[in-house]
Amino acid sequence: VSIGHESLNRQLTHLAAGTEDTDAVNVAQLKK
């Protein structure tokens, strides 16, 4: 998936599902 900006792409690529309440929630989790 390409989202316009290179550095933003890299950040999104490395997102993982959060295991703690304080972790950022990614799109995959939101869609569950």
From TrEMBL:
Record GO cellular component, one term: outer membrane
Record Gene3D superfamilies: Serralysin-like metalloprotease, C-terminal (2.150.10.10)
Coiled coil: none
Domain Trimeric autotransporter adhesin YadA-like stalk: 11-31
InterPro entries with a match to the protein in the record: Coiled_stalk_dom, Serralysin-like_metalloprot_C
Record protein name field: YadA
Taxonomic source organism: uncultured Yersinia sp
Lineage: Bacteria, Pseudomonadati, Pseudomonadota, Gammaproteobacteria, Enterobacterales
